[in-house]
Every structure is written in C-alpha cells, then in structure tokens.
Amino acid sequence: MGTEFSKRSENMIDTGPENESDLSFGVANVDARHFEFDHHGLQYESSRLIAMYHHWVLKNAAAMARLSAGMCVLDYGCSGQQLRRTLPHGVHYVGYDIREEVSDIRDPSECSYDVVFAVQVLYYLNLEGLRQVVDLFANITEMVIVMCPRRNFVKDQILDRLFGLNENREQLNRTTPDEIYSELGHKFDCSQRKNLFWMGELTRWIRLK
C-alpha cells in the first residue's frame, strides 16, 4: 500500500499557542476515569515481571505484522510509545493517543499506513467508539494487529489480582473481546491468531476487498 508521507508534516502536533491541537478521536467514548490512571506506569513500572510481559507482547505484535524497512505504521493508543522500540530498522513510526502529551498527530484519519497496531486499547472504547475506530482503520490501512486481554478465571481472579490490575479492569473495560472481534469482522478478515498464555490473544486482520 502506498503510504502518504506528505501529509504527516501537516498532521504533526504544534504545541505552540497559535495551533492548539484538538485530540478528540476516541475521547468521548472512554470512561472519564481512563485519564486518572497511569497506564504506562502500570504496565512498565509497577513490576519487572509485568514490564517483561508487555515488552514480549509488543515484540510478538511487531513480528506478526511482518514489517520491513520503508513501511509506515500507526500505533493507535500509543501511550509511552514502547512499540517503537520493537520495530525493525527503517520502519516509520507514528503514535496516536487521546492523551495529547504522548501523541504525534492530531487526527489519524489524515494519513494512510501499512499497518495499524491497536494493542490493549480497544476494550476501553464503548460500542459506538469501537465502531468509529473500526471504520477509521478500514479507511487508512489494509492490516490491523490487535491484542485483547483474555477474560477467564485464571486471568481475572488470579493473575490480575496478583498484579493489582483487577480494579483497573473493572473500572475501565467497556467492550469484550467478542464484541471487538465482531465489529472488526465487518471490515476485516482475521488471518492469524496467537495465544499469549492465559493473559491475552494477538490477532492479525486484513481488510476485506
């Protein structure tokens, strides 16, 4: 897919007073408490074990995308932009997040990308927001890599409690993996699945022709 690099310079956030960015894609569709949590801290600073797991997830996500130099990727829900560290040399990275301070761009719909990553973020959106994002993905890419945490007894009642993540989950999760896969299935075909122990699942989605 031809990547539209020319628009990116116009799309970059200008933090100067004359051009205040308006990051709104997804904001209205997440719980307001989403902004009270330090998601990066929970995943990469709360313990070495959790940080190792999440880095491993990102490495697997990058491998599933089969990236090569010259490709351009969008990290939707980029947070601390940890995915960037796992990409092959020469891959052009763009991060988008509803948190303005960590986002590279104002509006992800203004460019196209070879791959869009949505790692541990889609379940924060309600159904309306999820449908909006799936439509966005279908307009800007041919491939989406998604990671969803599992919902089972081991994950919910043992591992999340052990890592102190269960309260965060109950407060913020607005859609289930089944709902996410159902909405993606309207625009994309799931071409690969990978189980991540009891913790989650990685999937690769190719846009329907």
Q: Biggest β-sheet, characterized?
A: 6 strands, mixed
H/I helix tally: 7
- CATH overall fold name: Rossmann fold
User: What distance lies between the first and last C-alpha atoms, to the nearest angstrom?
Assistant: 13 Å
Q: Which term fits the overall shape? A: globular
In CATH, the architecture is 3-Layer(aba) Sandwich
Helix amount: 25-40%
Q: Which stretches are low in confidence, meaning pLDDT under 50 for 5 or more residues running?
A: 1-23
Order of helices and strands: HHHEEEHEHHHEE
Identify the strand order in the major beta sheet.
2-1-3-4-6-5
CATH superfamily heading: Vaccinia Virus protein VP39
CATH top level assignment: Alpha Beta
The domain count comes to 1
Number of strands: 6
Overall mean pLDDT stands at 83
- Structural class designation: alpha/beta
Task: Indicate the radius of gyration in whole angstroms.
Answer: 16 Å
Strand content: 15-25%
